[in-house]
Every structure is written in structure tokens, then in C-alpha cells.
Amino acid sequence: MGPAPAGTQLRGAAGEPEVMEPSLEGTGKEEKKKSSKKHTMAGSPMEGLLQPVKLSRAELYKDPTSEELNHLRETESLFHSSLLRLQVEELLKEVKLSEKKKERIDAFLREINQRIMRVPSTPETELVDQSWLPVGVQVPLHQVPYTVKGCFRFLPPAQVTIVGSYLLGTCIRPDINVDVALTMPREILQDKDGLNQRYFRKRALYLAHLAHHLAQDPLFGSVRFSYTNGCHLKPSLLLRPHGKNERLVTVRLHPCPPPDFFRPCRLLPSKNNVRSAWYRGQSPPGDGSAEPPTPHYNTWVLQDTALESHVQLLSTVLGSALGLKDGVALLKVWLRQRELDKGLGGFSGFLVSMLVAFLVSTRKIHTTMSGYQVLRSVLQFLATTDLTSNGISLCLSSDPSLPALADFHRAFPVVFLDISGRLNLCADVTASTYHQVQHEARLSMVLLDSKADDGFQLLLMTPKPMIRAFDHVLHLCPLSRLQAACHRLKLWPELQDHGGDYVSAALGPLTTLLEQGLGSRLHLLAHSRPPISEWGIGQDPPKHRDSGTLTLGLLLRPEGLTSVLELGPEADQPEAADFRQFWGSRSELRRFQDGAIREAVVWEAVSMSQKRLIPYQVVTHLLALHADIPDTCIHYMGGLLDALIQGLKEASSTKGRMMVSQGGELVMVPNVEAILEDFAILGEGLVQAVEARSERWTV
């Protein structure tokens, strides 16, 4: 080998540090000094350790470079402080996917594509004839009613497309999911497949045939079914790699129709696509009355038709704007810490991404913003914008055939339209969930504006489950009682629209009922539905009652909370009949000191602790009266401190005071040590009580 070229890095013998050789110029003295210095370093007892860098005075006080000035300027304009910037950057490093893992995931996706295309076709059969399905695989859908028109055959997908956050670079750890859209060939579908769940039946059969063949492949360590965003009419197939990479990624397969297969005018929120004669087994009414609209059913069909258009929009908006992608990642962390993105109707990361796209289109967010600025802008928008009354739209078309926002507000509690102007992205989001998102956004903005030292920790690093966020929490269990509630509340159109999902059908009316009953006592009511777990391909799909427990959280107002009187209208007013119907036997006529005779409800409460639990009486009475849910199905968690406070008050009546001598007189003063000891006992008792009840009712 010849001599090393000038300016390259050479490596000495074992144990010697690396030395950078400059150009081969200089005097012999300089070479001797270097050689002497090199041997001195090699023989040093601190060999192998990092040494402090010695800088000259000129180097210490030299002017900052243009890159350093830009960094300081960005920190000053885009962040509150250098510490916040460091915290945000470190968090993003932790949640983002590394390049090495991306390469392994890409290789796995290529293998999946090849295997899907090799799945054999099947002959055409009637939808009700499912004898061709092999043993060991079940259709991942409740087929009620079972009889339905149409034919089905399996053909390999016409196109396999990666959609979702993985393609956009906004997915976050620890759970990496890759959504893959399988475009079913037109030969499988028929013109009227939008009616009476025919499309959803074919979609489920398509997945069942795929699951049987892919489960036999050694590439996959796990092949299971799951519901897409908790919707029981839209199962998806989950694929995980075999061996040590099983936790690397979960690939979710979503069958979808070809573009422009369904006529959009047939899927508007005012249209009906589930016939009462088919679903209820009743003949159509002879009075010529119209069928009830099925807005949620229509939306679920439209969602499958818009998968590719949505990812194209997000790809165009986010593009190479790293700040927007960082902002989406931070917003997903914010939602996850507050459990706002879980289950059916959650405020998902997809909705946040589309909201960022909307704010970019309205120029409230710029592509040059940092991730922290995007986070602030979105939280500010959520805190100040009520989508339950003023919906927004990504559609820029002025086509008169498109429905108006008012049409969507009549069908859905929360409205956010996509670029087509026909699909409500927030169709499954309830008003209670959106108000909870608004409430958390307001709290987060107050925290950010305060510039507190622990603001980052509280905003993005601290979990905030429902039990920490609300004053009172109640669990409804078993969920099968909600089926009786639907019958009591006569929610037949809602059941027809939700495909028999009585939990979703009853949720909105129940929350509205409790909000009306609690009135001025209530600041916020929210609900939480745990996500339905995945299941094996040989198992029947979970039923609606298997989704665990429905949890409601009550955030109460101190003003009016302890009032024992619900004052109604005067007896001769027309509203008096509605008041009596709402409160039932609790309502009674009373004469007041001013001589007025009014309808009123009086709650039984004497002590202050009993008055603080009046919401429990309100909730149990209204649910039993209007929804046929007895108090035995309601586990109410509230007032847990009262017993502990009362016990400590009795035990510490004298313990908390002590006699001291001041100026020759005995004076009673607080015993601080005893009070602190009582607080410690109080905290331990509260934690034990909450943990005991939480463990008992955790599903």
C-alpha cells in the first residue's frame, strides 16, 4: 500500500487515539513535536476518556456563524425557550420511526403484495350460500338479517395501495400501523350493492377468503380480524410478521370499491339505503311515508370510496413541510395522552391531519411553521371553534347539487366535510366527545400561555385518563341493558342506521337526557367506549355487549351543585306538562313564599356530603325512568373523599390544635405536624379507594 493521501484520517495502533494528519508540509521540529505529543497521549493514564477541549480566547469569543444565528432566531420566534425546543425535539425523536425499521417494514409490505396477488379466485355463488368458505374461518360480520340479495366471487384486488399515516411519515410509536387499501374488481360488485348491507357482506367475505390463505403462509406470525375504528360493519384484516419482528408493525387490510362505482347522490345524508321491510321484517307502510334516512350507513360506504383521495390531499399539503408533519405527530401524542382517539367516535389522528390541511387551506397555518407552532394553532382553533353549530368544509366547489352544511347539521352532531363536499369526516364523533376535545384544548392553551416550567411535561408527557379529568365517573354495565333502552326510547331509525349497534344508537339520546337533567350543575359530560379487541379468524366476531363498559364522566360546577331544589314552571304554564313528563313521580306542585305555585323536584339531602351526591340521584332516577336502566347497572364513583374527611374530622377534633404559652397566657394554635400527618393519611386512603374501585370495574 502506498502512503495515505494528505488530509485523510489515519488510525493508530490498538489503544491509541485517532489523529488527524494535516498536509505533509512543515519543518522537522513540528513533526518531532507531534510525534512526542502522540506518544505522551498514548501513555497517559486517562487514555480512552474524553478530554476537555482547550480553546483559545479568540475561539471562545468568536462571532456566531450564520447557522447558529438562524437557530437562535428560530428558537426565539418559534418556541418559548431553548429548553422547550430541546424537549419537543427529543420527544419527536422518540415517537418517530427510524429509517432502519422503515426499510424492514417496506420489505414486509412488498412480500404482502406478492402473496395477496397469488390468492386463488372462487366461483360465483349467492351471498347467502357461504358453504364454499373453508373450515376454520368465520365471516367477520354479524349478518342480521341473514337473507340478502346478491352474488359474490373472489378475485385478486385490482390495485393494492398504501394509505394512511405511514405513507405520509406521520405515524408515531409505539404502535406502528400501516393501512393498505385493496381495490376490489368491478366484476365482484353489482349496481345495487349499496342497499341493505350488500356491500359490507361482500367486503367481509372478501376478507374471510384472504384470511384463510394468508394464515397458512409462514411469513405471518399473526393473522386476525379487527373492527375499523370500532365500526362493526367494517372489519379489517391484521397481519403481523413472524418471529422477532412480530411487534415491528401491524398491517391492516381494507377492501374498498373501485373509484366512482357508487353514485354519490345515492349516499347523501338525507337518503335511505337500508329498507325497513328488509331490516325489521315489516311490510312498508301504506300511508306513503318516506323511509328514515341512514346518514351513518351512507357515510361508512363513502369512507371506503375516499381512501385514496384523502391520502393524495394530505400528501400534497404535508409534502416536504417537516414542521407540519412534526405538528401532526405532537397532536397525536396530545390526543393519546388524553385517550381522546380511542374507540368508535374518537377524535382520531386522521381527523387531526385533515384539520391541519384545512387550516393550511385557510392560511391559518403556514408550511414554514414549526411543529410547536402547528400544535398551538390547532389547539387554538379547537378551543375557539364549535363544530357542533358551525361546521367547516374542505370543499371549494360551488356545485349547486352539493348538499349544504345545514343538511349535514340536521343529520350529524359534528360537521367537518372533506374535499368532495359529500363526506362528513366527523360523522361518528358525538357532541360530547367534541366538547371534551374543546375543553382540553382550552386548558392546554392556558398552560402554554402561562409559560410554566412544567408545561411540556403536563401537556405531552402526563397521561390524563377519565378518572383524573372528571369529578364523578359512572360505569354502565352490562351493555345489553342499552338494547332495552333503545326500545324504551323508540330508537328504531337509529338502530336501522347503525346496523343494530344499540350502544351507538342509545349513546347520543342518553347523554342529552343527562345533560338536561343535571342542568346548571354540569359543566361537561363526556363518555368513553373502550376499543373492541381483535379476534382470531376462526372465532365469531364480538357482539355489541362484549365491548366492555360504557363510562360517563361528569365535570361539575360548584355553583348550584348543592341545591336540593329543581324549580319548574308555574302550574298553569304549558311547559308544566313537559316538566312533569321529564321528572315523572319526582315532580310535585309546591307553593312558595312569593305565593307562586310551581312544579318542583326536591332531592333528599341533609348534610353537605349528601348534597354533593345529588347528581347520583339525578342520574339514577332519569336512567330508570326514561331508559329502563336500573341503579344496579350503574356503578357511580363520586364523593370518595367524604368518608375519609369525616373520619379524620372526628379523630382529629383535638389533635389538630395545641396549647402554647404566649406572654404568660395559654393560646390555642394549629398543630401543623398533626395536620400534615392527617393529609398524608387522607391521600393514602384516597389512592387505595380509587384503585380498589378501578380494579373492580376495569374491563
Automatic annotation (TrEMBL):
GO terms for biological process: rRNA processing; tRNA export from nucleus. One of its GO terms (molecular function) is RNA binding. It is found in: Chromosome; Nucleus, Nucleolus. Gene3D superfamilies: 1.10.1410.10. GO terms for cellular component: chromosome; CURI complex; small-subunit processome; UTP-C complex. Residues 178-317, 324-462, 468-627 form the Nrap protein domain. Part of the small subunit (SSU) processome, first precursor of the small eukaryotic ribosomal subunit. During the assembly of the SSU processome in the nucleolus, many ribosome biogenesis factors, an RNA chaperone and ribosomal proteins associate with the nascent pre-rRNA and work in concert to generate RNA folding, modifications, rearrangements and cleavage as well as targeted degradation of pre-ribosomal RNA by the RNA exosome. Part of the small subunit (SSU) processome, composed of more than 70 proteins and the RNA chaperone small nucleolar RNA (snoRNA) U3. Interacts with RRP7A; required for NOL6 localization to nucleolus. Belongs to the NRAP family. This is Nucleolar protein 6. It comes from Rhinolophus ferrumequinum. The gene is NOL6.
